[in-house]
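Q: Here's a chain of 272 amino acids. Please give me its 3D structure as tokens.
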Amino acid sequence: MAGLPLPDELAARAREIIAGRVEPVPARDAATVVILRGSGPRGGPEVYLLRRKSTMAFAAGAYVFPGGSVDPRDTDQAVAWAGPSPKEWGEVFHADENLARGLVCAAVRETFEESGVLLAGPGPDSVVEDTTGDDWEADRLALIDRSLAFADFLAGRGLVLRSDLLKPWAHWITPVIEQRRFDTRFFVAVLPEGQRTRDVGGEADHVVWRRPAEAVELARRGEIFLMPPTYRTLDELAGHDSVASVLAEERHITAILPEAVEVEGEMRLMTP
């Protein structure tokens, strides 16, 4: 039998929504970034994963990629920009130019907030080499509490966002049966030379670099929890033996919306 069985509470909500008695929650625009680095000790690329705290309202205990919701200020046209334009990103992700700008900015901002990795540099052909000082940490915390806008952060350091360091990968929308929903574009990026991820706390209680195939196998054995979009992405990446191979893959982005379906009296979540 295909699909994932839904717990009783979620199954009941699914039936209410299907019957039209409950209105689905709108999905918030969001971005997430799969950070890759070169071959690990067992060969093949590795990905950076965070385990969300068990107290989080959404995806508690799940291993996820850095990411989060688009901040209204992420669409600020004052953001210094290098690489493919918001218009070009919009064409890839089937979004208007304003939203596309916000998605790319959110991807870069959230990656810095949740891993310390910054996809920006002094110019269109350079990238920051180190983001580990106390002054960087102060800026990171100010971005998290929203006392500092991303455009002002870049301007204050004389940096430009490097959209060319991002690769579009996927588009997932949280099922309508969930009470917290996100319309998320997935990106892939390579850990810039000289930079390193660090345990930055916040929403995560553990971080790890893992080969995609290993993460998938751990999830299959029930040793870690992966949400369907994370599982699918890791499974796709497991077919690549190098970072270069991942970057060379052609991707045609279409929205994926898992759907609750009743199968022989049981509500199950089906993923296209």
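Q: Can you summarize the key feature?
A: The chain has eight helices and 14 strands.
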